[in-house]
Amino acid sequence: MQPTRSIRLSLGAALCLLPLFAFAHPGHGESGLLAGVGHPLGGMDHLLAMFAVGLWAAQQSGRACWLLPVIFVGGMLFGGLLGFDGIAIAYLETGIAASVLALGLLVAAAARPPVALALGITGLFGLAHGMAHGLELPEMS
Q1: 58, 64, 66, 72: most buried by Cβ count inside 10 Å?
Q2: pLDDT at residue number 19
């Protein structure tokens, strides 16, 4: 028996509120090359966001299929560079958690907005994830 859609969405929203998902950034006692390389795969926030971007891209047609993951990574790169310069946005960790929730909802709804809107959403979420890394790397070195 399959859980109803509202139960799945509620469970997903509840999971995003767990503090465990915020353990991905500075002050958690891990640093070094292995921590940095393993973080995108072990940091639940990034893993879920990348997985959701991939699923959402697979639901799209045309060029959005390959552009969404490219824009997410490009947003992460640009955000990382901004973070290296010490530029931060308010509520960054909340934005990262919101990105995981929003991307999950977009996948669940199989949303197909105009390509420009989908790219903008994906790029902004990538920017937030990258900025978190750009801000933490100087602190961890």
Answers
A1: 72
A2: 46
**b/e per residue, 87-125, with b = 16+ CB within 10 A?**
eeeeebeebbbebbbbbbebbeeeeeeeeeebbebbbbb
> What number of other Cβ atoms are within 10 A of residue 138's Cβ?
12
Nearest 10 degrees: Cα torsion 26, 46, 127, 29: 10
CB 76 within 8 A of CB 130: yes
Give exposure, 23-41, as e/b (b: 16+ Cβ within 10 Å): ebbeeeeeeeeeeeeebbe
Q: Is the dihedral of CA 19, 25, 70, 82 positive or negative?
A: positive
Q: Looking up tokens 């990538």, which residue turns up?
A: 126
Distance from C-alpha of 82 to C-alpha of 1, rounded to nearest angstrom: 47
Question: How high is the pLDDT of residue 23?
Answer: 47
**What's the burial of 50, exposed, middle or buried (CB within 10 Å: 0-12/13-18/19+)?**
buried
Phi, psi of 25 (to 5 degrees): -125, 180
User: What does the pLDDT look like over 50-84, one tens digit per residue?
Assistant: 899 999 999 999 999 999 999 999 999 999 999 98
pTM to 2 decimal places: 0.72
